[in-house]
Amino acid sequence: MTPTEGPLASPVTDGTPRLRLALADYLTLGNALCGFLAVLALVSALSTHIATGATGPLPRSAMAMVVGLMLVAAALDVLDGRVARKLGGSGMGAELDNLADVISFGFTPAFLFVVWGTQSGGAGTLTIMAGGAVLLAVIVRLARFSLQAPGTGYFTGLPCPFGAMAVVTVVLLNPPPAIAAVAVLFISWLMVSRVEYPKPRGRKAYAVLGVLGTGVALIVSWGLGLPAGQWLVYLMSALVLAFIVTVPFYVLATRHAIEEPARPAAPVEE
Fold it and tell me: In this predicted model, what pLDDT tens digit does every residue of 96-124 receive, in sequence order?
């Protein structure tokens, strides 16, 4: 699920979907590749950590690499839809988008959370359940999205990239494992809920890209141990969590204001 909309199909003149890859599809495949590389980086860092007999959390540099790749995947997820609408997509675009999102925003954050829980000494049943819930929520959400009619200005449920970033923020904030698991279960519920989130269109989509680019810069500064990097990451994480919790209330408030019928003017006494 892209933070805007999925890549659009571009049928040929006889109505048969185009089955050759378009430019937007290569961006979608780049999204999937970033998710794969993030998992590979995580496995490599974990193996090195275990081989050296180290204990505690993984090195910042390794975590920064994983999170940075996930942010790049989210940026590509924004771009593929915009490129498809401007230049045309293929008949495979929507399917490729869903498959890529399962990798980058389903399996990758779920695996990251379970690995973090293991290194935090809290890899119990609740941690594994929370990681599994993220993966299953993304699969269900994408299947539901495929059946929904296009054109609405709102997503039903928290979009998968935002859900994945919310899981990442929980990991970066490093709370007690039990609290983290409850937070991730709540994020999973938000993805399959009926809560509505506005679709960023037009300039708002570029604003999302700007936020993702800023996130990459912050993660790099954090991974390199630069001054104030830790607090900037904490601030970014808090803003992400505040966003996913407060935006639905904003949507409800604005919709109520729009749909509320105008009250008739009071009669004027003569």
Answer: 999 999 999 999 999 999 999 888 876 67
Q: What is the DSSP string of 193-215?
A: SS-EEE---THHHHHHHHHHHHH
Distance CA 62, CA 223 (A): 8
As a whole number of angstroms, the distance between CA 164 and CA 168 comes to 6
Report which of 59, 64, 68, 2 is spatially closest to residue 35, judged by C-alpha positions. Answer: 68
* H-state helical runs in the chain: 23-51, 60-87, 93-102, 108-119, 125-147, 160-173, 177-192, 203-223, 229-259
Do residues 18 and 11 make contact, with C-beta atoms less than 8 angstroms apart? yes
- Is pTM beyond 0.85? Reply is no
Question: Per-residue pLDDT averaged across 5-24, rounded?
Answer: 61
Rounded Cα distance, 54 and 225, in Å: 19
Place of tokens 């490729």: 96
Tokens of 17: 């979907």
pLDDT at residue 21 above 80? Answer: yes
The CA distance from 161 to 188, in Å, is 12
Q: d(Cα 68, Cα 236) in Å, to the nearest integer?
A: 14
Dihedrals φ, ψ of 198, to 5°?
-70, 145
Which residue is listed with tokens 């050296």? 52
3-state secondary structure of 170: helix
Q: Helix, strand or coil for residue 155?
A: strand
Domain ranges of the chain: 23-259
Q: What is the CATH number of domain 23-259?
A: 1.20.120
Report which residue type is found at 36: F
